Amino acid sequence: MTIQNYINGNFQNPISNAWIDNYNPSNGEIYGQIPNSSTKDVEQAYQSAKSAFKSWSQTSLEERSRVLIRISELLEDQLDRFAKAESKDNGKPVALAKTVDIPRAASNFRFFGNAITQFASESHESVGHNAMNYTLRQPIGVVGCISPWNLPLYLFTWKIAPALAAGNCVVAKPSEITPMTAYLLGDICNEAGLPKGVLNIVHGLGSTTGQAIVEHPDIKAISFTGGTATGAHIARVAAPMFKKLSLELGGKNPNIIFADCDYDDMLNTTVRSSFANQGQICLCGSRIFVEATIYDKFKIDFVERVKRLKVGHPSDSDTDIGALVSQPHLEKVKDYIRIAQEEDGKVLCGGQEVNLKNFENGYYLEPTVIEVPTDECRVNQEEIFGPVVTLMPFHTEEEVLQMANKVKYGLSATLWTNDLKRTMRMSSQLQAGIVWVNTWMMRDLRTPFGGVKASGVGREGGFEALRFFTEPKNVCIKY
Length: 479
Ligand code: TXE
Description:
By secondary structure, this protein is of the alpha/beta class. Helix content is 41%, strand content 22%. It has helices at 39-57, 61-77, 79-90, 94-118, 152-165, 180-192, 206-215, 228-238, 263-275, 292-307, 327-342, 378-381, 397-405, 420-429, 462-468; strands spanning 5-7, 10-12, 19-24, 29-35, 123-126, 131-139, 142-146, 169-173, 199-201, 221-225, 244-248, 254-257, 287-291, 346-349, 368-371, 388-394, 409-410, 412-416, 434-437, 452-453, 456-457, 470-478. The strands form six sheets. It has a seven-stranded mixed beta sheet, with helices on both faces. Strands 9-8-7-10-11-21 form a six-stranded mixed beta sheet, sandwiched between helices. A three-stranded antiparallel beta sheet has the order 5-6-22. Strand 12, helix 9 (263-275) and strand 13 (287-291) form a beta-alpha-beta unit. Helix 3 crosses helix 4 (94-118). The longest helix is centred in the N-terminal third of the chain and has 25 residues, at 94-118. The structure holds ligand TXE. Ligand TXE is lined by residues 146-150, 173, 175-176, 205-207, 210-211, 214, 225-227, 230, 233-234, 248-250, 282, 383, 385.
């Protein structure tokens, strides 16, 4: 299947006619072509967005909201089609795409369609000076949204929905590794009545198409989710042009388990927080720290549960772990398993590639648990972003807090305990943008989402996203 760019409401080939192969991770086969767009395509997308801006930015909130909610409904109507397409492109189980990715993409449009009608700005009366200040929150203009491959449509829409709701026009690029559902979204936008040019989707490599978006002098804000190294590069390119930047980057999140937790709930959730989406979620709790008094029991129970996870074809309904997203990514994850062993890590289960009958060239890997001798080893410090977790005991709150914070990342942390005071102490001291206590990945779209340290700058979600995608202007009136 050939994918095209979506510019000014039309589907078109890249101007240079350059294409990239699109792989199906479940069998390693090329199943389509996607544009490798150049600066010329990005310029065309920009011009189309620029032409649409005046009208879209002045479109009433009710109308913008109506269109976004219509997109959400159409996505829900086509849940099956989108879930299958997402799974084929990414390797994730269809069941996961059906229950998480696509429903959450639909909620992104619905949520921001509603949120914009509630978004208000501040006013400040300068008492004693006979002056009134109020703040306008105006759309920025044309903004760039660049998203990764792990939760393709979910993260793509997480950016474009608030950008559009706030009255901006968008030039967006999904990951070249998983472009399919973003491509399918174009049709839905047309059907929902999104005016031409308001959203433009260009496909291509990060180093060409993505770079062209970031370098474009008149694309004034960039919202990016992806790897930390890419984020640092984008920040360097964008800084001299004073662009607004929101960067959601990698994570190496601690999952801290105290003996007083609700054990069964913790165990079930920890299996999920370790291996959901083949471990390819920036929020996965990839470093598990367990209080020493229950360490041995946990180790036995956890490994037993992980061994029961079924690695299988993404379309099989009983598959827990599908295929990793690409061959290079599979190699990267396997490399880390090797590095772990060189650093005296003990593989408690998994560690091997899986040869699925009839799908021998797919990118399958066993879920892997590695007991590490120290928290300072590379597998405990670097983002692996695959079905691999590390395991270590701890004795005191201070010790585990220190280990939890001793990484360059700071996206999320999970804490399992029923001690209220400890919860309060630890959640305030953990260096993370999000702390989950006795749960994982429970998302309320109104909350701020993002990380500290090398996990990024800025927050998405709720009004934070609408603030990012608007420029505040103070008006001071003397009377
Ligand atoms: O991501 P990239 P990659 C982590 C994870 C993974 C590593 C690398 O550890 O192994 O990053 O993954 C676009 N200008 N995460 O290389 O390259 C690119 O085309 C503009 C964590 O696949 O960061 C894609 O659309 N754009 C993460 C997007 O950036 C550029 C999710 C992300 O790709 C660009 C994914 C450039 N110069 C990976 N170079 C998370 N936080 O969830 C690339 N891109």
